[in-house]
Amino acid sequence: MEENISNLVLYKDNQIISFNKPNGLLTQQGKDEEKSLLQLAEIYCKHPLGLVHRLDRPASGVCLFAKNKKALAYLNQIMQNREVEKIYWAIVPKKEIAQAGTLTHYLKRNGKIRKAEISDEEKSGFKKAILTYKLLQEMDRYSLLEIQLQTGRFHQIRAQLAAFGFPIKGDVKYGARRSNSDRSIHLHARSLKFKHPISKEEIYIEAPCPKDAIWEAVNKK
Questions:
Q1: For domain 2-220, is the CATH number 3.40.50.720?
Q2: pLDDT score for 112
Q3: 114: left (phi over 0), alpha (psi -120 to 50) or beta
Q4: pLDDT in tens, 22-34
Q5: CA distance 62 to 22
Q6: Which active-site residues does the annotation give?
Q7: How far apart are CA 214 and CA 92, in angstroms?
Q8: Where are the domains of the chain?
Q9: What is the pTM of this model?
Q10: Average pLDDT of the chain?
C-alpha cells in the first residue's frame, strides 16, 4: 500500500491533504500491526499529520488530514460548528421508501461490542442523532441513498439506516443478511465541502466510488 498511497490523494496544498480511503483500511492505528491510512499518509507527506475525522474500517471515501496544528484547530472547530458539508452514499435493499426524509434517533456507543445502541426516544446516556437522506437511484435489488449528517455519532449512518429498515449492504453487524466477500460495507464518504483554513475559499473534495459491480452500476447511471 505504501507505494500506492499517492494514487489515493484527492486534494493537497500546504495546509491540508485528503485521501480516498479504501474499505478495509483503518483510518487510525488500532491493535492490528498493519499500517493505518494516517501512518501511510505521514510516510507520504514525510511529516506528522492531524486527523480531522474518521471513517469506519469497512467503509470508503474522503478522509481529511491537517498538515499543521493551526489548520487542525480550525478544521476541528468548523466540524464542531457543523460548517462542513459531509455527503455519504449508501447502498441499501430496494423497497418502498419516501423520496427524501429526516431520521432522528438516540444513540449510545457500546464499547464492549463496538456497536451503537439505538432508541426512538430520549434516554439517559444516549445522544441525539439526526441525518437526512435522498433516494438517488434504484437498481434491480438495491437502492442508492445520499446521506447528509446533522450530527456526528459513532456508527450513526449504519445504526440509523438499520433501525429505519434499510441496513447497508454487507453490514451484518447492523442487520444485513450477508456479508460482502471482502468484508466491506457499501457505505462511501462521497464528498466534503468546507472553507479553507487560510484563504477561506470554498473547497469541494469528491471521492470516486470503489470498483465493484454495484458501485460500477451506480457510476454508469
A1: no
A2: 86
A3: left
A4: 999 999 876 666 7
A5: 9
A6: 56
A7: 11
A8: 2-220
A9: 0.93
A10: 93
